Amino acid sequence: MSFSVTILGSASAKPTAGRHPSAQVVNVHEQLYLVDAGEGVQRQLFRYGINPLKLRAVFISHLHGDHVFGLFPLLSTLGLYGRKTSLRVFAPAPFGEMLACYRRYFDPEPPFPVEWSEVLTTEHALLFENRTLEVWSIPLRHRVPAAGFLFREKEPPLNVRKERIAEYGLSIAQIAAAKRGEAVLLDDGRTLPNGELTYRPYAPRSYAYLADTNYSAKAARLVAGVDLLYHEATYADAERRIARERGHSTALQAAKAAVAARAGRLVIGHYSARYRDEGVLVEEARTCFPETFPAVEGETFTIEKRREP
Predict the structure, then answer these.
(1) What is the pTM of this model?
(2) Domain span holding position 186
(3) Best exposed site among 6, 45, 216, 298 by fewest CB in 10 Å?
(4) Does residue 145 sit in the same domain as residue 225?
């Protein structure tokens, strides 16, 4: 079962020739979720072979233009492509006013419903779940209300060890009970603990998206143990005063967040236009957290399965 993140945009607010504003697609078990929607996001989806009709939901971290301007053209295109199923959008208020204005002037008879759910940016709350996934909000510290998102895979079903099936001659009913996590009563009267019969095929995987924010120890704590962490790194640490004033982080602060969160890997992005080469930011972060990688547009970061200890 897949779990990956594809980078669509890595720039901050000022346009540059080689970077697009913030946007990513998270793929969990072939279900696609758009995270932020900077200008040009639909073009980036097409460029990297991602079918926008397959998007299940959209998560908007905050309502600055470089994170949301691309959503409304995308909605229009989805209508042109014949989408009929509803699209859920999770975003802070007053996104509903923006959506109503777009509908009034550009799409008064929408071919599909957009269901907006408000993200309360001061709360760590469950926003979305299905059979395989949970998405939680992470309060951030920006100039406007903002939230990050934690994508966390639910525990996979138990597998029954094949050698135990043969050893104990387990019936279909007994196998089903073991898969439910129950102890199994054998025909000879013995009871086998579930742990002797089953195992988790892999540990649940996770991804955290911490967009525009000052360094936040609380956010790092809320995503503790995350396999892959995206953290904005708008500036080098020499510009930490500007970063603080503008509600952003430096590359070194992003790395410190990864250390505090005990993250497996760190991806940094949202680069200021002053950095033509993000390598200086990556190298700065690696002095603190070696497993740091740049958010390169079109690159996909895969979270591999790992067996539980």
Answers:
(1) 0.92
(2) 159-198
(3) 298
(4) yes
